[in-house]
Amino acid sequence: MIDDFFVVQNNKLYPRTTLKLFMATTDPKIAVTDCLFYAVKETDHLWDETADDVAEWEMN
């Protein structure tokens, strides 16, 4: 399921689709003990392009 939302390219994590993030943190202690962020697929807006449309990702 995570592959539906994210792709790794050159050791970097990129969104595969338009996402809405919640409770995102830059605090390493919180990220390790709780989570880095929560994400859901964006459904409130119509978008012409997603990351998959713009970039040609290598699918593993």
SSE topology:
Layout: E1 6-9, E2 12-15, E3 19-22, H1 28-33, E4 38-41, H2 51-54
Antiparallel strand pairs: 1-2, 3-4
Structure description:
This protein has 60 residues and is α+β, with helices and mostly antiparallel strands. It has one domain (2-45). Helix content is 17%, strand content 27%. It has helices at residues 28-33, 51-54; strands at 6-9, 12-15, 19-22, 38-41. Strand 1 and strand 2 (12-15) form a beta hairpin. It is globular. The relative contact order is 0.25.
Can you describe this structure in just a few lines?
The chain has two helices and four strands, in the order E-E-E-H-E-H.
User: If you compute it from the alpha carbons, what radius of gyration comes out, rounded to the nearest whole angstrom?
Assistant: 13 Å
The number of domains is 1
What is the overall number of helices?
2
Class by helix and strand content? alpha+beta
Gap between N and C termini, in Å? 14 Å
Inertia-based shape: globular
- The percent range for helix content is 10-25%
Please state the average pLDDT score. Answer: 79
Beta content comes to: 25-35%
Widest sheet, order of strands: 1-2
Number of strands: 4
Low-pLDDT windows of residues: none
